[in-house]
Amino acid sequence: MYKVPLFTYHAYNESGGGSLYRSRYDAGVTPPAGTRIVTLRRPGGGIGGPVKGHPDAHDPRTPRQTFAHRDAPFIAWLEGAGFQVDYCTDLDLHDSDQPLHGYRLLLSVGHDEHWSAPTRRHVTAFRDRGGNIAFFGANTCWWRITVTADGTTLRCAKYPPGAAVDADVDGLRGGPDHWWETAPENDLTGVSYRNAGGHWNGRRAALGFAVQHADHPILAGTGLHDGDLLGAEHALVGYECDGAALRRDPDGRCAATGADGTPAGRGTGVRL
């Protein structure tokens, strides 16, 4: 099952003059201080319209926060390789866990940043039933959003009381809808954006990921070995990365400490 990140696409969608980063309220609604509100009943949402953010210097053909930029290339590879795949949105998983019944794997691809509490609960239940989840992205499950009962509007309280409206909300403490401050996303994803970072404007340095645990079954047949550097020629690290609090074992391999919500002892590092 491939989950299209509809919530995040609408969070960055500026059709009508606002996004979850710029709008303050909808007409006739008085939200709590610092809450951003957007409607799903507008053009865009990953498939057109103005989008917040810098262009991708490595692929300027399409805006970053769009289906064409992130999902379409991955889906073309999946289907071209003959994988059997079905599709849902995070709004589908907000409403019910039924879309995951009968599946062995859930794919989260690209920039899957905004999650509702029901979406996270249903995905976690899928994992706890023995389902597998593959995260091919970062900054995942960073903001908690609330969906109105009719499923048409998203709210996110990003700003702590008294914060300036132009503050860097990712780094502020006290944001009511920061997942990591109340229920760290590490418990589900294994890593968090707060332990890594990103490069948003211009070309990235030619950095890749160091391979460890190359004998793990997931790397079978890849030809990779411990210590190999993966993806440096494509500047693979960025535009945003997640990580975990870690230590190095006597062999120099990274393992999670568990201090930030990542299950202790898991071999981990950072991910694109």
Secondary-structure topology with pairs:
Layout: E1 2-4, H1 6-12, E2 35-39, H2 67-80, E3 87-89, H3 90-95, E4 105-110, E5 114-116, H4 117-128, E6 132-137, E7 143-147, E8 153-157, H5 179-182, H6 186-189, E9 192-198, E10 209-210, E11 229-230, E12 240-243, E13 246-248, E14 254-256
Parallel strand pairs: 1-3, 1-4, 4-6, 5-7
Antiparallel strand pairs: 2-8, 7-8, 9-12, 10-11, 13-14
Q: Give the CA-CA distance, first to last residue.
A: 20 Å
Helix and strand string, N-terminal first?
A: EHEHEHEEHEEEHHEEEEEE
CA-based shape: globular
Strand order of the largest sheet: 3-1-4-6
Largest sheet: 4 strands, parallel
Share of helix among residues?
Answer: 10-25%
> Can you count the beta strands?
14
> How many structural units, i.e. domains?
2
Taking pLDDT < 50 over at least 5 consecutive residues as the criterion, the unreliable ranges are: 24-29, 267-272
Radius of gyration: 19 Å
The helix/strand class is alpha/beta
Q: Treating each run of at least 4 consecutive H or I residues as one helix, how many helices? A: 6
Q: How much strand content do the residues show? A: 15-25%
Round the mean pLDDT to the nearest integer and report it.
89
